TrEMBL record, chain A:
Region named Disordered: 856-963
Residues annotated as domain Clathrin/coatomer adaptor adaptin-like N-terminal: 33-495
Superkingdom: Eukaryota
Keywords for the protein's UniProt record, in alphabetical order: Golgi apparatus, Membrane, Protein transport, Repeat, Transport
Role description: Part of the AP-3 complex, an adaptor-related complex which seems to be clathrin-associated. The complex is associated with the Golgi region as well as more peripheral structures. It facilitates the budding of vesicles from the Golgi membrane and may be directly involved in trafficking to the vacuole. It also function in maintaining the identity of lytic vacuoles and in regulating the transition between storage and lytic vacuoles.
Cell compartments where the protein resides: Endomembrane system; Golgi apparatus
Family according to the record: Belongs to the adaptor complexes large subunit family.
Compositional bias per record (Basic and acidic residues), positions renumbered to this chain: 907-924
Source taxonomy: Eukaryota, Viridiplantae, Streptophyta, Embryophyta, Tracheophyta
Name this polypeptide is given: AP-3 complex subunit delta
Automatic annotation (TrEMBL), chain B:
Keywords: Membrane, Protein transport, Transport
Source species: Escallonia rubra
Pfam family membership, one: Clat_adaptor_s
InterPro entries per the UniProt record, alphabetical: AP_complex_ssu, AP_mu_sigma_su, Longin-like_dom_sf
UniProt similarity note: Belongs to the adaptor complexes small subunit family.
Membrane found in the keyword field: yes
Cellular component annotations (GO), alphabetically ordered: cytoplasm; endomembrane system
Alphabetized PANTHER family for the sequence: ADAPTOR COMPLEXES SMALL SUBUNIT FAMILY (PTHR11753)
UniProt name for this protein: AP complex subunit sigma
AP complex mu/sigma subunit domain ranges (all copies): 3-142
Chief location category: membrane
GO-annotated biological processes: intracellular protein transport
Length: 963, 143
């Protein structure tokens, strides 16, 4: 094994073909063995002095590297060595190995420089093209610097094959070494006028890539590109030129005006779909202000959309989404196709269509569009279903629910979305539920209603994707429990046995909500008059601040069993004040618009039942290992302990003495209720920044030690809730009690719903005496009743959508849009306007310098590039400038095809080569200063021009090439 | 650059040719190829030939058992790339005569050579079949 390669190795060497065959013969799973065996062989063979053996080994290694990802960095030197072989197949193998495996950091790269140079200057054009191909892949700044002069020579080669490849290589060389631009650029521009199609094609390709990075620098070349656009009949070239114009037209309106007609002409004339599509894309993205052109383009898009070829349909939709940004009518015109595409066989097409549908959403049609989309979501596969839902959620919540007017509807839509079988958007829905709850006061009753419907369904608990939604529902139900029509039922839902399927963090939220509900119920049951006015959404009534509890005696007397007759409320009659005096309790009747909470809900029985429920459900959890659960359970049970006796006691007695006995429990409950009644509002994202950092706190200190400590602690999801100060200043502890309760309208239905629900899920409810083993056989989660409503007929959907997408005149809103709480700051996500990084600053800087003259670097890059360039210039000037000088001389010889009105300036005619500079300078009123400079070599002129850079006004320099 | 990489993959998902026009490490290549193959091979005939992946747009076409996948940047014209793939296949067909997967397997170097004639640095530089094949035929004669 250790010895060098022997003669035997050479004779019995396996060829690449043998190796490939051995791959085909190996047993399944035996591939790694084959590879490692082959690599052993190769390592031995590659050291051979026989070039044929070496080449074969290198070929095998290249194969393994390229297709089986074997490492071959160790063989880099052998590739370099083999490249010097005079035998072409060896050379080819070596260069291929180099171009496939070398990386910028390969250390033997520099050893290749001489060989590359030798091959580049070879008379055999195949050797030259091999070297060029390799250079175009592996080029590094060093290689670029060393080989630029050779490349320059080849740009003028008489052999098309060589010239074309040299042109393609310049792109890579420019990006590695920007000074090469000064040497090669003029030559490159000349090739634009070549008669050879492939040369032009390659040159345009290079300019297209360059122009994509920094278009402004190439504006002066527009006349050449224009000529190609009009004259060329080669589609590859035209596509590239169109891409260049798409960039240039955006910068120069006069240019746009000039090219729009030829582009339309191509669009009408050409039979090549690729070219037509490029024209369409160019017009829609960069020339969208030319109405007739856009109309023509949209007509073409329509042809694409109805084509049988799915590729064209996809591109058509993409084109629509480009035009949709500025001309929504084009999308609306094609809406049937778009909607139909929602049920296409291709997920990519569906996604494009979905994006377009969402682009059509406005506040007038959001409800209808959502309805249509949900119908699609119900039929779609899970992945696309969630795409749809994601789009709905993000579109509706955009800009703090900008397009939502009817929040009640939106909230029930959220509830509906939650029940869609494939829905995996739990987190987003949870956030929106809580967020809307905090921001929109008016929607809270509906929110609680929706939350209740979700919580009460035990089947939903079986679906882990819905847990986050349930968490949100539990939170809103607890937080806004005063809007609940039936808190007892809510309590049962929160404590149902199947909640043990929830992750601990969410269960903790459930328990906390149960806590809130309990406090609320006790408050209501215990202190009816106080609690009766505990809603937050109605005008605050003024009550006498210190109600006398003595007054309750008689009240309690007469309402022994239905002393919870609390919701005799009205909205119409607003009692300005209440007097509790002597033996008469004045009940202020506030007739609610909706039905009152039924009297029998909070009877003694039900309170008793609730106590038992809480105890049975939570007592086993006292031993929970989850801190959050444990703590909350202890809290709630503690409250129970403190109050239960007194409360049940007070039920049992005929006459109760509030003053002496119940004061303690009363105080506790009132206090708890006070705590929970504190309004929770949204908190600005930036709020934390305003907290001053305490002195002596080192924030930079590394906390990595915490990781080891906390690695297995699961943090509660409390982060989704914001604890903040009440956002409206008018509230205070006292006024809380004075707020009337708002009833949810459907309470009459509630009872029937509840009984139905019980019938269906009765067995999952906790019997009050014994614990039940939770069975796993449940009705399927998300059982959708409306399954029959789903129409399969796409036509119907199209019709439906058509109606919905018609831009109606703004309907007179039945309800005004409720107030949506916005924070002054922080709601708008401040997208830091990042400047697009100009990657090829250097290249475009150098190009600009050549094309505009250095005084006329346009403002976009003026500041950064001019500094760099001037500092660079001092270093490398001499050699490069000589070359540049040559370039400019040779340029003078070639007749320029540019039409220019500047010929009238007598003096300048001699300096046609620097015409553009003159043009530019004239625009800036600098022509006089500059004219004298032309005779003394380019670099001097440039250096002089440098001096005036700062004087030049900041207006963009627009060469007058179009006139 | 327009074209970022060209892959040929058989329907079992084995790579038969891989040419990158930007530098990626072996691990990056392995991951990229795996992801793309999984994504594209799962698609059926009725679905379009364009897939977006990471920051690439993949344009692919299937010929018999072989998939031709071309990764391009977002500016590239998809239909032109489809035409390019077809041109590539036609060129190989002309050279090998009824080209199949095995031809590419056993003549990987030639396939690369053809590609290099057509694409340099991500730009398409030659679209004439006879021009593409001329140097290869010269080389064949030489060896």
């Amino acid at each position: 094994m250790s010895g060098g390669p022997s003669l035997m190795d050479s004779i019995f060497q396996r060829s690449l073909e043998d190796l490939i065959k051995s791959f085909r013969l190996h047993l399944p799973g035996g591939e790694p063995t084959v590879i490692s065996k082959a690599l052993d062989e190769i390592r031995r063979e590659i050291r051979s002095t026989d070039l044929t053996t070496k080449a074969a080994a290198l070929q095998k290694l290249t194969y393994l590297h390229s297709l089986h990802h074997a490492d071959m960095s160790w063989a880099a030197f052998h590739a370099v060595e083999l490249s010097s072989s005079a035998f072409l197949p060896h050379k080819r193998a070596a260069y291929l190995a180099a171009s496939l495996s070398f990386r910028p950091s390969t250390d033997v790269l520099l050893l290749l420089t001489n060989q590359l140079r030798k091959d580049l200057t070879s008379t055999n054009h195949i050797e030259v093209s091999l070297a060029l191909e390799c250079l175009s892949v592996i080029c590094t700044p060093d290689l670029a610097r060393d080989l630029t002069p050779d490349l320059f020579k080849m740009l003028g080669s008489s052999k098309n094959l060589v010239r074309k490849k040299a042109i393609a290589t310049t792109l890579r060389v420019f990006s590695q070494y920007s000074d090469a631009v000064r040497v090669c650029f003029k030559k490159l521009v000349e090739n634009l006028e070549s008669g050879d199609v492939q040369t032009v094609s390659a040159t345009v390709g290079v300019f297209c890539e360059l122009a994509l990075r920094e278009p402004r620098a190439y504006l002066p070349l527009a006349p050449e590109f224009y000529r190609i656009l009009v004259d060329s009949r080669n589609n590859w070239v035209l596509i590239k030129v169109l891409k260049v114009f798409a960039k240039l037209a955006a910068l120069e309106p006069r240019l746009a005006k000039k090219v729009v007609e030829p582009i339309c002409e191509h669009m009408r004339r050409s039979g090549a779909k690729s070219l037509v599509f490029e024209c369409v894309r160019t017009i829609l993205s960069s020339l969208s202000e030319y109405e007739s052109a856009v109309k023509l383009a949209v007509a073409k898009v329509r042809e694409f959309l109805v084509d049988d070829d799915q590729n064209l349909r996809y591109l058509g939709l993409q084109a629509l989404s480009i035009v949709g940004l500025k001309h929504l009518w084009a999308v609306l015109e094609n809406k049937e196709v778009v909607i139909r595409s929602l049920s296409d066989a291709d997920p990519n097409i569906k996604l494009e269509a979905l994006q377009l549908v969402m682009a059509m959403v406005s506040e007038d049609n959001v409800t209808e569009i959502c309805r249509v989309l949900i119908t699609y979501a119900l039929k779609a596969d899970p992945e696309f279903c969630n795409e749809i839902l994601g789009f709905i959620l993000s579109a509706c919540s955009r800009n703090v629910y900008e397009i939502i007017i009817d929040f009640d509807r939106y909230v029930s839509l959220l509830g509906e979305i939650s029940r869609i079988p494939h829905c995996q958007k739990g987190e987003e829905i949870e956030n929106q539920l809580t967020d809307i709850g905090m921001r929109v006061e008016d929607v809270r009753p509906e929110l609680v209603h929706v939350g209740r419907n979700l919580l009460i369904d035990p089947a939903l608990l079986g679906n882990p994707f819905i847990h986050r939604i349930l968490c949100g529902a539990a939170w809103v139900s607890g937080e806004y429990v005063q809007f609940s029509t039936n808190p007892i039922e809510l309590m049962e839902a929160l404590l149902q046995p199947r909640t043990n399927l929830l992750p601990p963090s969410i269960r903790a939220v459930y328990i906390q909500s149960a806590f809130k509900v309990l406090t609320f119920c006790l408050n209501v049951a215990f202190l009816p008059n106080e609690a009766a006015y505990s809603s937050s959404s109605c005008p605050i009534n003024e009550y006498s601040a210190s109600p006398s509890f003595a007054g309750h005696e008689s009240f309690a007397d007469c309402e022994q069993d239905k002393f919870l007759n609390l919701r005799v409320l009205s909205q119409s009659v607003k009692a300005p004040s209440v007097k509790y005096g002597g033996d008469t309790a004045v009940n202020h009747v506030k007739t609610s618009a909706s039905l009152p909470l039924r009297n029998d809900i909070l009877t003694q029985k039900s309170v008793d039942k609730m106590f038992t429920l809480v105890k049975t459900a939570l007592a086993p959890l006292v031993g929970s290992h989850e801190v959050e659960i444990h703590e909350r359970v202890c809290n709630i049970l503690g409250l129970l302990e403190l109050t239960q006796n007194e409360i049940t006691g007070c039920f049992s007695r005929e006459k109760r003495n509030f003053e002496s006995e119940e004061l303690k429990a009363y105080e506790i409950i009132k206090m708890m209720r006070d705590v929970f009644s504190e309004e929770i509002g949204p908190v600005a994202v930036s709020a934390r920044d305003r907290v001053p950092i305490p002195e002596g706190l080192v924030l930079e200190e590394n906390l990595h030690k915490l990781e080891t400590i906390c690695s297995d602690v699961q943090f509660p999801i409390s982060s989704s809730f914001f604890l903040g100060r009440p956002h409206s200043g008018e509230r205070d502890g006292v006024s809380f009690f004075n707020r009337p309760i708002i009833e949810v309208s459907e309470s009459s239905n509630e009872s029937t719903l509840l009984t139905e629900h019980r019938k269906r899920h009765g067995l999952y409810y906790l019997p009050s005496d014994k614990k039940e083993v939770v069975s796993c056989e449940y009705p399927p989660a998300n059982d959708i009743k409306m399954q029959d409503d789903i129409t399969d007929d796409a036509e119907d959907l199209v019709k439906l959508t058509e109606q919905s997408l018609v831009r109606k005149k703004k309907p007179s809103q039945a309800k005004p849009r409720p107030v949506v709480l916005k924070l002054d700051e922080g709601d708008e996500i401040s997208v830091a306007a990042e400047k697009p990084e100009s990657k090829d600053d250097m290249v475009s800087g150098a190009v600009q310098e050549l094309l505009y003259g250095s005084d006329a670097i346009p403002p976009s890059t003026q500041i950064n590039s001019s500094d760099k360039l001037s500092s660079k210039r001092s270093g490398k000037v001499s050699e490069v400038n000589e070359n540049v000088g040559n370039v400019w001389k040779s340029e003078r010889g070639t007749p320029s095809s540019r039409k220019s009105k500047h010929h009238s300036h007598g003096k300048e005619r001699e300096h046609r080569s620097s015409e553009k500079n003159v043009e530019v300078r004239e625009e800036n009123g600098q022509s006089n200063k500059q004219k004298s400079g032309h005779r003394h070599g380019r670099h001097k002129a440039r250096q002089r021009a440098d001096g005036v850079t700062n004087v030049v006004s900041q207006t963009p320099v627009i060469p007058d090439f179009l006139l | 650059m327009g074209i970022r990489f060209i892959l040929m993959v058989n329907k079992q998902g084995q790579t038969r040719l891989a040419q990158y026009f930007e530098y990626l490490t072996i691990d990056q290549r392995r991951a990229l190829e795996g992801e793309i193959v999984r994504k594209c091979l799962a698609r059926n005939e009725q679905q379009c030939s364009f897939v977006e992946h990471r920051n690439y747009k993949i344009v692919y076409r299937r010929y018999a058992s072989l998939f031709f996948l071309v990764g391009v940047d977002n500016e590239e014209n998809e239909l032109a790339i489809l035409e390019f793939i077809h041109l590539l296949v036609e060129t190989m067909d002309r050279h090998f005569g009824n080209v199949c997967e095995l031809d590419i397997m056993f003549h990987l170097e030639k396939a690369h050579f053809m590609l290099e004639e057509m694409v340099m640095n991500g730009c398409i530089v030659e679209t004439s079949k006879s021009n593409i094949l001329a140097p290869i035929q010269l080389m064949d004669k030489a060896s």
